[in-house]
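Hi Y.,

Following your request, here is the sequence exactly as I used it, all 313 residues.
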Amino acid sequence: MSQGGADETERAEIRAAVVAAARRYFADRRGRVDPFVDRWFTFRGSLRLHRAAFGWDIARAPANIALAPVHVGARLAAAGARAAGRRRTAEWLGARQVMLETDVMRRVRALILAELLELPSGAESGADALAETIARDPSVRQLLAAGGAPSAKLDKILAAYAGTRSAVAEMTTALATLGAGAAALHQLTPGALTLGPALAAAMAQSAAISAFPLGAAAGSVWYGFMPAAASPALVAGTTAGLMGGAAVFAAFAGVLADPAQRALGLHRRRLLRLIDAMEQEFVEGRGGGFAAREHYVARLFDLLDAGMGAMRL
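Below is the corresponding structure, written out as tokens. Let me know if you'd prefer a different format.
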């Protein structure tokens, strides 16, 4: 066998050893998912996570709600460009990070890197479990320098995962609005655009009954047949106030959403998808990245809210 052929065979053997070691690493990470979820996504664990939300996250939450349709639009445009064969355009659109990273998102990313993946982060060298797993293989021990920061692709995958928290917070807020409307007004109110006018109408009705000249009992009968109309100013003020309150609630919605997602197995499945995306990227050098489906579900709530609000008008 020629020297070139021997070198090629050696490289192939080393590549196979690296791939096998990497797959062992990712299999081990999957075994760590359940303890990680139990540590950080219970009610107490989520409370510890959301200590970081006090501060600028309260301002970032409403900004992310406003930017979310742009984020979804960019992802849909990227998918369309990819289907049309415009690969560079699709990659450019897919790389746009529209959402603002909150302190809670940053904290979740750091915990995933440090505890679940055991990889070094940015400025910190830390442990590198992937490098150590590969380095333990005698075939590649002398070829790997352990350490280093996560790659740009890994950072992108983690950013997509962290961004799901914003979408889940929106869905939690929508469900809270839905529950409030059902309990207090017996109406379907999936968002502020439907709850605001309904609440304003209830306030106007209550005020009119209280001010009826013949008393509240007669007022109830009268306005039962001829409901009082809320002024545009009251509707606008109530809706704006609910939007502001919902935005603040969204910054801390994970305290309620995390335990529910843990009980339903959503956190576990999402982290397993994250590890699958990383393994495909590392082993095969390609992959579709981490698909954050939650953003699309949140947009369905928005469309329902806007549609019902338009019908009410």
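Residues 140-150 have pLDDT under 50 and may be disordered.

Thanks again,
Q.
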